[in-house]
Amino acid sequence: MPNPITRPLLAWAEGLRFPRLALFTAALFVADLLIPDFIPFIDEILLGLGTLMLANLKRRRDGQA
């Protein structure tokens, strides 16, 4: 069950297609490396975005999207 604070961001990210989702995830990851803990719960957000990216890849391979 997602954290109530991160749920709106992950719900928004579900609508993104793979290239933009990957860029958004990479940008957050790099920002987190450069400025540690600048966004609360960034680790949970990155895990959720990584899960969404893998789900998008699986859907594309199965021909669902």
Explain what the structure shows.
The protein has 65 residues and is mainly α. Helices cover 69% and strands 0% of the residues.
Q: List low-pLDDT spans.
A: none
Query: Please, how many helices?
Result: 3
Number of strands: 0
Strand content: under 5%
Q: What order do the helices and strands follow? A: HHH
- The average pLDDT value, as a whole number, equals 81
Oligomeric state of the chains present here: single chain
Kindly provide the radius of gyration, computed on alpha-carbon positions and rounded to a whole number of angstroms. 12 Å
What is the 3D shape? globular
Compute the separation of the termini in Å.
Answer: 25 Å
Residues in helices, as a percent range: 55-70%
Structural class: mainly alpha
Largest sheet: none
Give keywords.
65 residues; 0% strand; globular; single chain; mainly alpha
